[in-house]
Amino acid sequence: MAYLGVLMGKQLVLAEKPSVAREIARVLGCNRRESGFIEGENYIVTWALGHLIELAPPGDYNPRWRKWTLTSLPMLPDQLTLKVMDSTKEQFATIESLLQRTDVSDLIIATDAGREGELVARWIIEKGGYSGAIKRLWISSQTEQAIKEGFANLKEGYLFEPLYEAAQARAYADWYVGMNVTRALTCRYDARLSSGRVQSPTLALITEREEEIEAFSGEFFWTLRGHFGPFSATYQGEDDSSKIRSEELAEKIASELEGQTGQIVAITREEKSEMPPLAYNLTELQRDANLELGFSAKETLDTLQQLYERHKIVTYPRSDSRYITQDIVPTLNSRLKALEATPFGLVSNLYIEGGYREDLERFVKESGVSDHHAIIPTEQTVDLSRLSAKEVALWQLVALRFMEVLSGDYHYESITIEVAVGPHRLLSHQTFPIRQGWRDMARLLKREGEGISEPLPPL
Fold first, then answer.
1. What was the pLDDT predicted at 8?
2. HSE of 113 in the Cβ direction (CA atoms, 13 Å)?
3. Residues labelled catalytic
4. Residues near 435 by beta carbon (within 8 Å), at least 6 away in sequence
5. Omega of the bond prior to 201 within 30 degrees of 0, cis?
């Protein structure tokens, strides 16, 4: 009877943000809103506000550590303790009371599916004194379908304990390094200086790179280019380099070449191909968004978070993977279907009807996915009119890359022409597309892409 009683209890769902909690509650049929949670027949959905718990400050361990002095260093408490943040005490009290409810059978962690999300939940669980059963909702998108599938396939909480331990170790390192070194620098130099586990080595890398740039000693060189009607060619020295080290030598060679007739002595033709790029992870997307859209890294992440959380049209943003897993492959058609009303609609429908590239081995790699797969569109139908200009621009980058990944290889012919002008040699490298393949996708956004060169006359 006790076992049946547990099964009949309600499940408490802990989300990371109120907006995510509201969406989960809607999907689960919870409609009774209370202060700090939403309750239904079978579920109670509550939320953190990001972090509700933090590691206690130095003064909580030793009164001497409240004052910033060099003599108080190092501060190395044997055991770091948790403390409820002053700004979130009310919400924590709500969650704590829910954790103690007798009708709660188990807890479902539904914070962000990643290391930091795991830490948010586990610290609340520890501080709230909960010791019951734990399940984990692990999803990569916030669509209704993803939430339903996630709840139908909840994972055992203990499987994610190593992830929590990794997150906690990082938080401990942040405390020990940040608290001690920041205080040491500030006291030593009488200025507000900060240091940390990530900040300091990153700053060191930037400093080293800056020193390399300042120490770099450039040199001048000259090149010569000959124009032969339908094509041009670049002078090659005896060392197979196009760089001429002195202006005098460059002028001497130019005088020997100018007005002369060249003879083609060799033509090499080779057909080559280039596979599509891999899908985006957060770092690659931030890089391209900066180059193409002028977005800062934070601007990209903030916009991507809106596309994920509010519009539900991209998968989990903070991914470090550029691959997908095998279980995502059956969903590719529905993700393509969601692009119908966008500039990609015509091609996506062709792909649904006739199929996209068959060899997805390069894109589908189980070993290349840790917490989350690459950032790709979801199955949620896309209505670009509901997005801001920034959201449209960033979403198009993600969708374009997704379409490129599913497209065929770029095939081209590489032609090298060697021209002799007296004792001198000039080379011309020409590239002529045969099949544009994935490079054609950029044209869907009316981008120029790579133009098709005029064919060479018979040589």
1. 58
2. 26
3. 316
4. 408, 409, 410, 411
5. no
| 458 exposure class (CB count in 10 Å sphere: 0-12, 13-18, 19+) | exposed
Query: Measuring CA to CA, how many Å separate 251 from each of 220, 223, 419, 424, 445?
Result: 15, 10, 19, 14, 46
Q: Which of 91-100, 131-140, 364-373 has the lowest mean pLDDT?
A: 364-373
- The strands making up 104-110's β-sheet, listed across from edge to edge, are 32-34, 37-39, 43-47, 10-15, 104-110, 133-136, 155-156
Q: Which of 293, 427, 289, 278 minimizes the C-alpha distance to 360? A: 278
Asked whether 223 and 235 are in contact (CB, 8 A), the reply is yes
DSSP state of 157: G
Closest CA to 321 of 280, 290, 361: 280
In one-letter notation, the amino acid at residue 455 is P
Strand ranges in 21-65 using DSSP code E only, listed in sequence order: 32-34, 37-39, 43-47, 53-55
pLDDT per position as a tens digit, 297-348: 999 999 999 999 999 999 999 999 999 999 999 999 999 999 999 999 999 9
pLDDT at position 371 is 80
Taking each helix axis from N to C end, the angle separating 89-99 and 115-128, rounded to the nearest 10 degrees, works out to 70
Within 10 Å of residue 411's Cβ, how many Cβ atoms? 15
DSSP state for residue 225 in the 8-state scheme: E
Phi, then psi, of 260 in degrees rounded to 5: -85, 160
**DSSP one-letter string for 402-450:** HHHHHSPPEEEEEEEEEEEETTEEEEEEEEEEEE-GGGGGGGGGT---S
Q: 222: buried, middle or exposed (CB in 10 Å: 19+, 13-18, 0-12)?
A: middle
Nearest CA to 233 out of 273, 263, 255 is that of 263
Q: 360, 356, 329, 328: which is closest to 344 by C-alpha?
A: 356
Angle at 297 between CA 294 and CA 300, to 5 degrees: 75
Please, where are the H alpha helices in 74-198?
89-99, 115-128, 144-152, 161-189
Instruction: Give helix 161-189 / helix 115-128 axis angle, nearest 10°.
Output: 90
Contact between 271 and 434 under an 8 Å Cβ cutoff? The reply is: yes
Q: What are phi and psi of 382, to 5 degrees?
A: -95, 125
